[in-house]
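As described in the Methods, two query proteins were run sequentially through the folding procedure within a single session, without resetting any intermediate state between them. The first query and its resulting structure tokens are shown here.
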Amino acid sequence: MAKRREAATLLLRGFTPVQIAREMCVSLSTVMLYLQQQIGEGTIQRSDIILSFPSKFRRAIETAVRDAGSDKRTRVQYRLRKAGVAADPQELYLYLKLRRQKVEYGDLYEQLRLIEGHLHSVARNALQRRHGDRWWRCLPTKVRQECSMVYEEDEIEAEHRFCCTTFIHLKVIYEKLWPELSPELPDAFTRSSDSKKRFAEELHFINGVRNAVMHPVKGLRIEEGSFRRVHQFAQTLVGKTLRSSDTWGSILSMPVRSTVQ
């Protein structure tokens, strides 16, 4: 257990898996086993592994892949050598393997799903506690109208009209009902004098990332900073490390621009 946590700690400190193997005097396969176990326990996410590689290293490989028209290791190695870039063979192999799995996009989708579910639950629970059966009437009129329209037209019957909210609806709800809903949020979101504005800006940013993930044909580019910003927001909102094993039940029970940067 101690060695698994040591590997995860080194990863979060900026060590690559190959560097961790050297630091711990174990094989790369052993390090990857440790890290996979820590992913399962929720200590780290899969994307933390791929983001442990220096951005300069990742950019060089992505350029090599583009120029080679292939992510085959031999072709990428040739392009890197031609560009005068030195790359550890083990790190190159591991990065290309992780790159093919699109692990960072999988984690990002999971975080967006958890954020939306949690915001939805917090708003509904807070309004029900304060207003009882009248909670639905407290929502902004336009939100109620649009949700009702979708509810009536949707072939899949939802449990309530509120289930038809979009992420933008949630942003509007938190803006309009900030005095009622802000006490339900972590202090990190409410301690500043302009907290309402800053929270709305975060939701606007996250919606832009969400559009890029959910609508890949638009060709919206997601920068590394977006991954980290969404991840930090999600952890602060939910108050714990997010895991891919989290379910809707566990979430609900918990007390743009063209380039997203």
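Immediately afterward, the second query was submitted; its sequence and tokens are:
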Amino acid sequence: MARRILWTALVLAPLTIIVDLVAHPSKVVLFALSAVALVPLAWLIGEATEQTAEHTGARIGALLNASFGNAPEVIIALFAIADALPNVVRGSLAGSVISNLLLVLGAALVFGTDARIDLKGLLVQVGLVLCAVAVLLIPSVPGWHGNPERHSLVVLSVGPAAFLLVVYLVITTLGVRAQARPTEAPRQGTWPLRVAISALGAATVATAFVSEILVHSLKEFADAVGLTQFFISIVIVAIVGNAAEHGGAVVIARRGKMKLATDIAVSSSAQVGLFVVPVVLLLSLAFTHPLTLSFRPIELITMGIAAVSSAAVFYNGWARRWEGALLVAIYGVMVIAFVLTPDRS
């Protein structure tokens, strides 16, 4: 019954786009409609990822999920850069790293089952996140004094961005080459690989369009509830941009595939820090106001805490529900801190 409802609910995505283009309702209505439309899209990405993993193995399946799931994040960031909203871009990117390591991973553990996980692979991904935080200090520290958007910081950001991108591509290539091919044939009823990947692509495109509508309606929604731009970017936009990972990891965890679910959450966080951030920076050079990687102290500190917390939870090689609840609780504390943090002056 639940699957039938989710399949039927996929119609909400094109409906949201049509309503936005034709009816032009209030932004508050668009925010609610697009947020609901993202739920079945996230489920579809999770379903297609699981089907793909039957052919490729968990590691490559998780990489595909992270790649397709982070595509909306890049699109949202570029829209924000075009609108001269650099703080929203940096906040949403930092929030994506944090929410994947705490909220997504935590929810996957809570709704999944106690099971062994790929400790070595997860520790490598968390290590990459910590590496990204350390490297981002290079352009961030000078930005804590003076104008964080000055041209000299744009130039200073290019080197760290290129370094992070190269590190990610090298580590990912080595990881994929080391991935053994599945030893078992795909189970009966598995989608053909071409169908699964096509579904991933279609769901990602739809997610990008719906996410854009939601982001453009955030300001009016925020004004109505009195939220800061910082909170909107690091919590709301980050969760919206990563709806695929949130839903996909939980759906897969509920089916007992904890290795794939945990790999999705952690690898997606590493991909944001070492791939999405550099790509967004390099693409921003084509805009009138390029992005700088001058993150605020609270953004870097919370990213570091998220990485260390997740590593501490799965360091024993097991995924347990109470540990997932702990990660979600840590995320809740951070959200409170974000609410109390004013916008960047």
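Residues 59-180+227-340 form a domain with the A middle domain of Talin 1 fold (CATH 1.20.1420.30). We note this only descriptively and draw no conclusion about the first query from it.
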